[in-house]
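Recall from the previous chapter that SMILES is a line notation for molecules. Here it describes flavin mononucleotide.
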Amino acid sequence: MIDDLPDHYTDLTRALEVATDNLAEATSIAGHPMKFMSAATHNSGGFPQTRLLTIRAFDPEQRCLSFFSDLRTPKIAQLAAQPQMQLLAYDPDVRIQLRLDGLVTVIDHPEPLRAAWERVPLASRRNYISDPAPGFRISDPTSPHPESDEGAFDNFTILEVTLVRLDWLYLHIQGNRRAEFIWRSHAPFDKPDEQHWLVP
Ligand SMILES: Cc1cc2nc3c(=O)[nH]c(=O)nc-3n(C[C@H](O)[C@H](O)[C@H](O)COP(=O)(O)O)c2cc1C
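With both inputs in hand, we obtain:
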């Protein structure tokens, strides 16, 4: 039975390597369990606000996770007031939970936005053109889906989350394992400033 234990059960470096693979695969594999991450912000009343976001890219060198969003959604104003975000994902196949703290930059440079926009299919582009803006109260939910994507790019943005802490949890019948990884400097994802085992 003990032979079944993966090396990340007792090896912090392996745990982080596996987390790196989890995040990279979430960006590239359709249907990956970590593709949709729960992302938490705070509203002005102090209430946590969670929603699912689709992971678009992971850059381990920059410790950066990227998501697309609409500039007009409430989360953008919340992030302007408080740029901290917590991301949560779980893969039941490998029984690993990732809880990631990060600082969000809302990208406003046209070049990276335009480059990303070129890869957004027309059907998805229409999600950025709703009028009125997302979250507005309406009396009729059946307004027609727009035919064109004209004007949609103006509402498109990228959220870049620079990771500062990972709370890593691995579930195992012989005893769960938990670890934290902390980055304070510009170190890449594989070189945290601190790493510790935690009581699960
Ligand atoms: C599976 C799934 C994936 C989603 N992906 C995104 C996404 O990548 N970006 C985004 O802004 N909203 C995404 N949403 C919608 C958000 O969860 C949320 O409803 C919306 O962004 C409004 O959030 P806010 O009012 O908190 O700003 C997704 C929803 C689901 C159910």
